[in-house]
Amino acid sequence: MAHKVYSSLDLAVADIPDGARIMFGGFGGAGFPNNLIQALSQRGIKDVTAISNNCGTKDGELGLMFKHNQVRHVIASFPGPHAHYFQERLAAKEVALELVPQGILCERMRAAAAGLQGFYTTVGVGTEVANGKEERVIEGKRCILEMPIHADYALIKAEKADELGNLTYRLAARNFNPIMAMAATTTIVEVEEIVPIGAIPPEHVLTPAIFVHRIVQAKGIRYAG
Amino acid sequence: MPDKPRLTREQIAQRAALELPDGAYVNLGWGIPNLIADHLPKNVQVYFHSENGILGMGRRAKPGEEDLDLVDAMKVPVTLISGASFFHQADAHLMTRGGHLDVAVLGGFQVSEKGDLANWKVPGAKGSGGIGGAMDIAAGAKKLLVCMEHTTKEGAPKIVRQCTYPLTSLSCVDTVITDLAVIDVQPGGLMLREIAPGWSFDEVQKLTGAPLMTLGRPPEIKLD
Known about the structure:
The complex is a heterodimer. Chain A is α/β, with parallel strands linked by helices. Chain A has helices spanning 9-12, 34-42, 63-67, 84-91, 102-114, 177-183; strands at 5-6, 21-24, 48-51, 71-76, 96-99, 119-121, 135-138, 141-146, 151-162, 167-168, 184-195, 214-217. In chain A, the strands form 2 sheets. In chain A, strands 1, 2, 3, 4, 5, 9, 10, 11 and 12 form a 9-stranded mixed beta sheet that branches. In chain A, strands 6-8-7 form a 3-stranded antiparallel beta sheet. In chain A, helix 5 runs parallel beside helix 6. Chain A is globular and about 50 Å long. By secondary structure, chain B is α/β, with parallel strands linked by helices. Chain B has 4 helices and 13 strands. Chain B has helices spanning 9-17, 89-97, 134-140, 201-206; strands at 25-28, 47-50, 54-60, 78-86, 103-107, 110-112, 117-118, 143-147, 159-160, 175-177, 181-186, 189-195, 212-213. In chain B, the strands form 2 sheets. Chain B has a 10-stranded mixed beta sheet with strand order 4-3-2-1-5-8-10-11-12-13. In chain B, helix 2 runs parallel beside helix 3 (134-140).
């Protein structure tokens, strides 16, 4: 059995190269892998492509990586008015942004996870999201073609992992985490608690272990504002 | 005319609440729509959906009751009602996009006479803007209500022939509820269904950037 439990946050992110495409879970302050983000940022990584719903709050969450100018490209749905460092970098043209409707962001990641080469949707038709995208009519409706979003790594947050990597999430902290876990080549999860194999009843598993490659225990950090 | 009283934001929300049928699954957007939950008529039970993966969201959490893993789409700590459920973000938007929600209520910057909606970016505004869930919600809700002021702070109409702000979705709006009127988007144009107390059709038409229709004299908006 592959050993997935890492003894430290630093080790869990040690080999992520500059220029990596990385998904970051979390929404509305809940479910962010804040400890992993800190470890990655402190390592001095650069030129990251970040795929995330938003871009942090000041220097919390993903904000830390914009503060240190470690991100070149962002694929996001709602960067956020409180993402000060991101907005500064964007204004200075130090980072490029692709804005994606939130549900389409989910489905593009899910397409990557599911081995699907894109899909057609009515969402975004006639808006600036449709610029440069193939359009066709399906069942009488104008649709645009959306392509999968792949990633080298996903950094996610869960409540519990067993030593095999089966995960559970707490309340609404689930959000993007299970989707990103499925879409990335290597998924790294920080959890509040690691339990023995079998301690999570199979019907309570929300992300099956096949999608999880590295597990590290860390006490959750939350940012207000 | 400028000094005539209009509906307050709370009153717009109160009127919009009357459009929610008992038992409906409903998503409320930012701004005025978010006030609707406080104005549901008694005997009406609706199930609030949040795009971060909650169905059956209850009232806002009281001080001491907050759990930061239980927040709405605006990051505000909330509670659950009995029978609530959690799911991931893809399923949350499967519900919005796939036509599973009965009613969605969004804020708006502009609505066109064809029901096009612009609600995510002000031209020339600083910063990135953000789409969030608005495009998925607008494209998929069985019924889409828009709550907004009838005119901008400068007095320009927000109901227009064609949107000039960046679009959210084409031909998606069913009904607009403003501080002056309730207006249905119909195939033939905009039908003024109800009007704010003390206002005439002609006065409202003057503040509207597209032609309005009416069937006889429109009734006043009633809130009690």
